Amino acid sequence: MDRAEFQRLSEKYGDYSSWAIWNHEDELDPTIIESHIEELNAKHVFIAYNASREFQRDGPWANFRGFKHGRKLKFACNDTALRGSYLTDLFKGIKEVNSKNVQNYLTPEVVTENVSLFLEEISDIGTTKKTVYVILGVRNSEVGKQFRSHFLDHLGDVNVKYYTHYSNYSLTDEKWVTGLWKELGVKANYETIRQKYK
Known about the structure:
- It is built from seven helices and five strands.
- It has a single domain, classed as 3-Layer(aba) Sandwich (Uracil-DNA Glycosylase, subunit E).
- By secondary structure, it is an alpha/beta fold.
- A five-stranded mixed β-sheet has the order 1-3-2-4-5, with helices on both faces.
- Helix 2 (70-77) crosses helix 6 and helix 4 (108-124) packs across helix 5.
């Protein structure tokens, strides 16, 4: 990806999505991404349901940064083979903390619009048949059900993994991160990575 392409993607998707690169000193800082364009890739696309609230920073690519459990995603990706992965939501522009309430926003028109946007988005970032789609929710979660009902058939034969969302408070950081690594075949040492953020 060159700088011109990065700017085009920033203008088109920067209000909704992000990339799995974090500043070790300031995890809320999305500007770090622009300094590492050469590391951005579509080998893995992480997909959440919707943005639960307003982002903690302004500017493009501010989603998936901060809040109570966001560090789990950072620990899992920033210093491993998952670095530079794409992060997005199925449904854009719906700010709702309770995933069960998102259904109230999903008119047929909203669903159709978001399916179309998602398909355009994954094409624009350069996904291939080898891309792994990581749904941040178990198979029968709201995001899992909506993904299978409305999005999956449009993707054809793709590799999809379902894994519990990082906001799952019943899992420690280590259990969530190492469980994701096991699911995706990532080799890394949790404690070594954790020490970088002391």
